[in-house]
């Protein structure tokens, strides 16, 4: 079968290769891949950024892709899944033995393995996953949304678990990429009175989509984002989520927050950031990191899905064949489109 793999630990070095179809082991489900998604992490693996080198230490070749969904081909005896079921996949596999897995936080696991990063992922035709990692789509939900449930779970973890939004609060989201817009969607569902999303001129299409989804969009190259926030909330945003990973926005992020505000760091910064901490002290800000998701996050995501699926699907702008993965990665790197789907 065909698979997109990282071939060597260097920039580029990705290609379509032929590999054997996997056989499910005990407790595993065999899936026929329906679609895979692309995110900034995949671009970083393609370009082999230093941050990725520090995060992942795979053997090569390794099949790429941690956002994917599939159709059950084979399930273990006694499974609640049956052939033909459409499932989304939680690609993060904890060891189940360390302190953090014991606390229900496998995203911090001492031996955390990410499919498509540490071990083979889903940019292929068939894959095996532990049954507990496969989540059956609720009845009536369009299967096309399934590959987006991984990034949606990132947003759910940040907004409903790590830095919760309270009804009536004003939320600012820095970054108009898929994670930023999904964070805004979940914040609106959580009861935010207003959600302000910031981006740059290159994000024009994304900012237009934010407006269509009920958010306030701000092009920071044309409008002062602090002024835009204060027009809605004179004291600043109650909650600020940073999704861009841009070191240059750290000071701005603290300025956006109100007194007693909360700041959620979601984006991975690829460079050093310098910040004056005085505003954090004087305003008694809370700064909280939010990484990935945990197993309970996925269960929460599935409960939210029937309500949010229609809006989430609007993020899909391109569908390309698996063989066109380099074109797809380049589109993401150039900030063109929103969510790009690969189909085997």
Poorly predicted regions are none
Q: In total, how many beta strands?
A: 18
Number of domains: 2
Question: How much helix, percentage-wise, in residues?
Answer: 25-40%
The arrangement of helices and strands along the chain is: EEEHHEEEEHEEEHEHEHEHEHEHEHEHE
Summarize model confidence as the mean pLDDT.
94
CATH architecture annotation of the largest domain: Alpha-Beta Complex
Number of helices: 11
Shape: globular
Q: Give me the CATH fold name of the largest domain.
A: Quinone Oxidoreductase, Chain A, domain 1
What would your notes on this structure say?
The chain contains eleven helices and 18 strands. It has 344 residues and is of the alpha/beta class. Strands 3, 5, 6, 9, 10, 17 and 18 form a seven-stranded mixed sheet that branches. The longest helix has 19 residues, at 295-313. It is globular. The mean pLDDT is 94.
Topology:
Elements: E1 2-6, E2 14-18, E3 28-37, H1 40-47, H2 50-55, E4 62-63, E5 67-74, E6 86-89, E7 92-93, H3 99-102, E8 113-114, E9 126-130, E10 134-136, H4 149-162, E11 170-174, H5 178-189, E12 194-199, H6 204-212, E13 216-219, H7 225-232, E14 237-242, H8 250-256, E15 257-265, H9 278-282, E16 286-289, H10 295-313, E17 316-321, H11 325-333, E18 339-343
Parallel strand pairs: 11-12, 11-14, 12-13, 14-15, 15-16, 17-18
Antiparallel strand pairs: 1-2, 1-4, 3-5, 3-9, 3-18, 5-6, 6-10, 7-8
Helix pairs in contact: 1-11, 4-5, 4-10
């Amino acid at each position: 079968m065909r698979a997109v793999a990282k071939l060597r630990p260097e920039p580029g070095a990705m290609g379509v290769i032929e590999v054997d179809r996997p056989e499910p082991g005990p407790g595993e489900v065999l899936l026929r891949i329906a679609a895979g998604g692309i995110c900034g992490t995949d671009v970083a693996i393609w370009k082999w950024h230093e941050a990725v080198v520090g995060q992942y230490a795979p053997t090569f070749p390794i099949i790429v892709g941690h956002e994917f969904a599939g159709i059950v081909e084979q399930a273990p005896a006694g499974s609640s899944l049956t052939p033909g079921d459409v499932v989304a996949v939680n690609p993060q596999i904890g060891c189940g033995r360390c302190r953090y897995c014991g606390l229900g936080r496998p995203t911090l696991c001492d031996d955390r393995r990410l499919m498509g990063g540490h071990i083979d992922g889903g940019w292929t035709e068939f894959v095996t996953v532990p049954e507990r990692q496969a989540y059956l789509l609720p009845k009536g939900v369009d299967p096309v949304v399934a590959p987006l449930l991984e990034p949606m779970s990132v947003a759910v973890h940040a907004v409903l678990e790590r830095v919760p939004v309270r009804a009536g609060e004003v939320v600012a989201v820095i970054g108009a990429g898929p994670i930023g817009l999904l964070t805004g969607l979940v914040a609106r569902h959580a009861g935010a009175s207003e959600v302000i999303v910031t981006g740059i001129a290159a994000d024009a299409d994304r900012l237009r989509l934010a407006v269509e989804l009920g958010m306030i969009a701000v092009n920071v190259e044309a409008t002062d984002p602090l002024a835009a926030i204060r027009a809605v909330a004179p004291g600043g945003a109650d909650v600020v989520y940073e999704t861009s990973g841009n070191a240059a926005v750290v000071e701005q992020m603290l300025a956006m927050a109100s007194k007693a505000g909360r700041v959620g760091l979601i984006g991975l910064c690829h460079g050093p950031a310098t910040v004056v901490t005085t505003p954090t002290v004087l305003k008694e800000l809370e700064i909280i990191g939010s990484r990935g998701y945990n197993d309970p996050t996925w269960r929460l995501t599935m409960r939210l899905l029937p309500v949010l699926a229609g809006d989430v699907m609007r993020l899909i702008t391109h569908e390309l064949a698996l063989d066109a993965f380099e074109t797809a990665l380049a589109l993401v790197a150039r900030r063109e489109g929103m969510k790009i789907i690969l189909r085997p």
